[in-house]
Amino acid sequence: MTTAEQWTPASWKTKTVAQPVHYTGQNAEKLPGVLNKLSSLPPLVTPAEVERLRHQLSLVQSGKAFLLHAGDCAESFDSCTAGNIEKKVGLILSFSLVLVWGGRKPVVRVGRIAGQYAKPRSSPKEKVKVKGENGEEEVREVMSFRGDNVNGLDIKDRDPDPDRLMSAYFHSSTTLNYIRGLLSSGFASLYGTHPRDWSLKHVRSDSLRNSFTDIIDSLSDALDFSQTIGATKGENFEGGAGRGGAFGEVDFYVSHEGLMLDYEEALTRKNTVSGNSETNSYYNSSAHFIWIGDRTRQLDGAHVEYFRGIRNPIGIKVGPSMKGEELVRLVELVNPDKEPGRVTLITRYGADKVETYLPGHIKAIQESGHPVVWVCDPMHGNTHTSATTGLKTRYFKSIITELTATLEVHSKLGTYLGGASLEFTGELNDDGYSVTECLGGSMELSEEELGLRYQSFCDPRLNFEQSLDLAFLLSNHFKH
Ligand code: PEP
Ligand code: MN
After folding, report:
1. Is the ipTM of this complex over 0.90?
2. Residue with the nearest Cα to atom 1 of ligand 1?
3. Fewer CB under 10 Å: which end of the chain, C or N?
4. How deeply is 211 buried, as exposed, middle or buried, from its count of CB atoms within 10 A (0-12, 13-18, 19+)?
5. Range 337-359 average pLDDT
């Protein structure tokens, strides 16, 4: 095993890369030029912002704040529009308001946004039905769709093209720019009409809409009161930069799965300034937070090698196949100095497997003395194909069951569930309706409705109403 001293932004190349992407022909020739250009472009996030998130995650770890990690399974270049970004950010803000209300704790918001383009696949190839030359349907084997930064969803566009990495950088940059603009222009402000505009108008359920509006009114009153008595500063939650930082009134961070190591390496920068960041440390400047997926977390693999050298807070997905001692060795590798706020473990077992696996993982970490943030991803262990429509979907009920079981195990073992990692979207279709990708919730979405507005080209997401249902459930849990 290489030592910490031997790490470089490129040392991952000496290891085996899981989920590799092979560029061929002219595309292979283009790759060095693209990476070279990417490495000279400005960073998307700054070391000071990354340190601020690390500090806030250390507060999550000690139970003083809650982490909301949420957004699309995968973003697409085509869905990068002002309207979609407003709806996605609006839902994250709405969800976090409900949580703040119930939990009486700050919520750290980390979007799966502004860079969540690459997707791991269970198989590099897939079989698709196409119309043959004689007009008859035939089954053809093509390269799997790997996300917009690798290849295209259209089966004619499945060759990996490095220009898509450049496109990913610019789409990330424009998304982030709009988020920064929105937040510094009062989009998150509880005053005025914004929270009511975020997406509420189309919510069918009166009680859901009224509960949410009541919370906004109460929070605005509370804010007015604390401003009147001059008590808005509170404890040092922000981590140095204070209110009114880069994101205006509220903090908002961006994240993606760090799957495409060529891209991550090109965006890795040695920090030369001192002050509120670590001089001479390497920061991944493509996002504040990146995570290692469940398919790329091999101890001797390229992804773990890359992740261990960067200063950013990182996530690690933990599924049923993870062994207790493997988990401890992994955390040891990426956080040898046991720094709080550095590692977030995102557990995703499936509703009926939580009791089997989570206690062992918690005990192994407890014995190792490693500080970690525990987060529940109730989505990825609960995906199935709908028998009637053939669409990938998730039951709202299974999502709730995994979350509730996880909360119970943590409270039994004396650990703190620091957050939730969710796939949801506030996106509406052209007629102003929510997407229909997950089953159930207070709107009781049925199998027959699934095909109506299924817009995800990857995993199914909770829609606005289903997400608020979940937010109220969590919020009520924290109230008691
Ligand atoms: C994801 O978060 O979209 C994902 C693919 O998760 P996992 O690695 O846990 O399967
Ligand atoms: Mn997903």
Report:
1. yes
2. 73
3. C
4. middle
5. 98
